[in-house]
Design a protein that fits this description.
392 residues; alpha+beta; FAD/NAD(P)-binding domain; three-stranded antiparallel β-sheet; 9 helices; globular; binds flavin-adenine dinucleotide
């Protein structure tokens, strides 16, 4: 969308339907506050971009519920106080709040074991399909072309720079190619013999049906209970709860069938990771147990070894860019990564200091050529997703 709005001629190809990958499975939550202040500012601007999209489309895309962070131990309480201090220094709306306030924003949560709470009133969530449709409609109006069922089979090169891409039926010539193939990105990167430091890991969340006697309103706050490794938000009268478990399941995208659909991944209720998710959810929401009527959604996330996306030029291949590796935050981050990458492509620079997203930052690492080493690093990162954040 952002490239089209900057006047570029854009062609978007998808081997299946748009939104049929990770995006279609996402829970759509996001927190603007990050340990890197530049990234927080970027995400704050992303929310403004969505406000503009809503005005243009005359449609609501973002649900602002506010979000709570909670702590049951002194070290986690210190983490929340650091969040508040670092947020305030850059003008992000965040406050320590008391138990009564937290309870009023999310009445179904257990609070008797908690000692600290903070609240970010401008956070919320997206329905990923509505956000994606918004991008597509605005981009089409600005002249972009979208072709589904069109797999990129090769990246054409000449003298160290890209010339375009090849599909089964056609060659499309272009001076710039962006690899934004989500979990499949590392396979697309292999077309130019550029190893990519991403791994593809299973992730689950549950959505309860409305529970008699439990009050859950669509305006209740989202929550992150990092010590219990869970996030949550209201959904259709029930509660959505997801978890970053200790031992994620890995997927090899090359081993999946040609017609693989992420929405068709099925998971048994007695699967160990689902049992761990229900157990973790019940710590904060005691009305949830293995007999609670619920659905479980699963999909594949793309993780990097350091928890940051790969976004920008690949310096060894002129004209090639990455926009991938979103570590479970790609729906929320898309609102800002779009204009960040469009600025880098069209103007050669961005207003934001985003060196930590550099697409080449792992080049030269001795483990980069070894997929097993990459997977181990990415699995560690997933398992430590909610480790105590370093003070920024
Ligand atoms: C269960 C789950 C919950 C999540 N919850 C959240 C959340 O709450 N908040 C959040 O922000 N993020 C969340 N995420 C992460 C989020 O879904 C991803 O970060 C985001 O959707 C990534 O978008 P993408 O466009 O990079 O990848 P995708 O949506 O996977 O899109 C990649 C596309 O590339 C296409 N493709 C692949 N190979 C080729 C090829 N060779 N040629 C052409 N096309 C190709 C695929 O068909 C696919 O449609 C969640 C993910 C999962 C699985």
């Amino acid at each position: 969308m952002q490239l089209s709005l900057q006047g570029r001629s854009v062609l978007v190809l998808d081997k299946a339907q748009f939104g049929s990958g990770s995006t279609g499975q996402a829970a759509g939550l996001g927190a603007q506050l990050r340990s890197n202040p530049s990234e927080t500012r970027l995400l704050m601007e992303g929310i403004e971009v969505v406000g503009e999209m809503e005005r243009k489309l005359n449609e609501k895309i973002f649900t602002r519920t506010g979000s709570l962070h909670v702590a049951a131990t002194e070290d986690r309480a210190g983490e929340l106080r650091d969040f508040v201090e670092s947020g305030k220094t850059i003008g992000f709306d965040i406050e320590l709040v008391d138990r009564e306030f937290a309870k009023s924003r999310l009445p179904c949560m257990r609070t008797d074991d908690l000692i600290e709470f903070c609240y970010c009133p401008t956070d919320g969530h997206f329905a990923p399909s509505e956000l994606l449709n918004g991008y597509i409609r605005i981009a089409r109006d600005a002249g972009a072309t979208f072709l589904s069922q069109t797999r990129v089979e090769d990246i054409m090169m000449s003298g160290g720079r890209v010339k375009g891409v090849q599909t089964a039926g056609a060659s499309f010539f272009a001076p710039v190619v962006v690899n934004a193939a989500g979990p499949w990105s590392y396979l697309v990167a292999e077309l130019t013999q550029t190893p990519m430091a991403t791994a593809t890991l299973g992730h689950y969340y549950l959505v309860t049906e409305p529970v008699p006697g439990v009050q859950i309103s669509p305006t209740d706050a989202a929550i992150r209970d990092r010590a219990n490794r869970i996030y949550s938000r209201p959904e259709m009268g029930g509660l959505l709860v997801g978890s970053y478990e200790q031992e994620p399941v890995e997927y090899s995208m090359e081993a999946l069938p040609e017609d693989f659909q992420m929405s068709e991944i099925r998971i048994q209720r007695d699967n160990l990771n689902v049992a761990l998710l229900i157990e973790a959810a019940s710590q904060r929401f005691p009305f949830i147990n293995e007999r609670t009527p619920m659905s479980v959604t699963t999909g594949i996330m793309t993780f990097t070894p350091d928890g940051h996306a790969l976004c920008g030029p690949v310096h060894d291949v002129e004209g090639l860019y990455y926009c991938t590796g979103f570590n479970g935050r790609g729906v929320f981050q898309s609102t800002s990564v779009g204009f960040l990458l469009a600025d880098i492509i069209c103007k050669g620079r961005s207003r934001y200091q985003m060196g930590h997203l550099d697409a080449d930052r792992f080049s030269g690492e001795p483990w980069l050529g070894d997929r097993e080493s990459i997977r181990t690093r990415c699995c560690d990162r997933y398992a430590n997703h909610y480790l105590i954040a370093p003070k920024s």
